[in-house]
Design goal:
Blueprint: E1 2-5, E2 16-19, E3 30-39, H1 41-48, E4 57-62, E5 66-74, E6 86-90, E7 96-98, E8 104-107, E9 112-114, H2 121-124, H3 128-140, E10 148-152, H4 159-168, E11 172-176, H5 182-188, E12 191-193, H6 199-207, E13 213-216, H7 221-230, E14 237-239, H8 243-249, E15 252-253, H9 260-271, E16 279-284, H10 288-297, E17 303-307
Parallel strand pairs: 4-7, 10-11, 10-13, 11-12, 13-14, 14-15, 16-17
Antiparallel strand pairs: 1-2, 3-5, 3-8, 3-17, 5-6, 6-9
Helix pairs in contact: 3-4, 6-7
């Protein structure tokens, strides 16, 4: 099968278009024929070796944790799926090697949910990791009806879901982003604010004096300072960027977990028309290096995805 693989850690140029053996469905898993794979910042951090201390890695290493495709073969112990099922998945295991930047991917039932009927598979590949990161983080800090919530990095891959899901949960939402993305945030239901110097004052004035919760997908000093200043309880600030900084201020840190039920909930929200999956750009699989460079540069509005020839 065609795949994008690393022979060693390095820059985007280390991503090689190569051929690898086709995987076989294990007794408790399936093989998914990939139509698209989501590109996330964690992918280039893995490529650089930054996660080596927490995830054992093995070469050749295929990056990628997001997949959308069709079940091609099924192990004998998997009643949840059948050949031909359209599925999406957050396919993360305890070791990093067999990722989703490949024509075929082995996944377990805990990784997968049916694909949204309203989306083609290329766009659906943008949902799993980022959607679950937002959903689980908001649940971690108990966001609910009537809460005033700020989402930092609101136009990015995780932020766009955190804004929408907080609104679905009944919260009033402000989102920090560059001015070029403010109209986009209004369309998602958030009141936009510019980030940077003076954020605490701007947020205080906009919210009428305080917040019940804050979701940080940016990790900047300004985001932390503004959130802590306006929250009565720092534990209702959740960050997905920096556990050390979270510990310093008594905030919560979240690292997304595979969650079949949570992913199914997100799919239902998409099919109900309540949750959008904004995809900024699709790339052919062979242009994975370009996708990584764009992800590293930041300022991407929504999601990036890689597509196979069937995408």
């Amino acid at each position: 099968m065609r795949a994008i693989a690393l022979r060693a850690y390095g820059g985007a140029e280390a991503l090689e278009h190569t051929e690898l053996p086709d995987p076989i469905a294990p007794p408790d898993g399936v093989v998914v024929r990939t139509h698209a794979a989501g590109v996330n910042p964690v992918d280039w951090k893995i490529r650089e070796g930054y996660l080596d201390a927490i995830f054992p890695s093995h070469f050749p290493l295929v990056p990628g944790w997001d997949v959308a495709g069709v079940v091609e073969s099924v192990g004998p112990g998997v009643p949840e799926h059948a050949v031909g099922d359209r599925v999406i998945g957050y396919v993360r295991n305890d070791h990093i090697q067999h990722g989703t930047y490949a024509e075929r991917v082995v996944a377990r039932p805990r990784h997968l949910a049916r694909a949204p009927e309203r989306l083609d598979l290329a766009d659906a590949a943008g949902l799993p990791l980022a959607g679950l990161t937002a959903w689980q983080g908001l649940q971690r800090i108990g966001v609910g009806a009537g809460d005033r919530v700020v989402v930092h990095g609101a136009a990015g891959g995780v932020g766009v879901f955190a804004v929408q899901l907080a609104r679905i949960l009944g919260a009033q939402v402000w989102g920090t982003a560059s001015p070029a993305n403010h109209d986009f945030l209004r369309e998602l239901g958030a009141t936009p604010l510019a980030y940077g110097e003076g954020l605490t004052t701007r947020l205080h004035e906009a919210t009428g004096g305080g917040l019940e919760a804050a979701y940080d997908a940016a990790g900047t000093d300004e985001a932390f300072a503004a959130s802590v200043a306006l929250l009565d309880d720092p534990q209702r600030l959740v960050t997905v960027t920096d556990p050390a900084k979270a510990a310093e201020v008594g905030a919560s840190y979240w690292f997304v977990r595979p969650d079949r039920e949570g992913l199914a909930q997100l799919v239902s929200l998409v099919d109900e028309g309540r949750l959008q999956v904004p995809v900024a750009r699709r790339y052919p699989l062979v242009e994975a290096a370009a996708a990584h460079r764009d992800s590293e540069a930041g300022h991407v509005r929504g999601k990036l995805v890689l597509t196979t020839d069937e995408g």
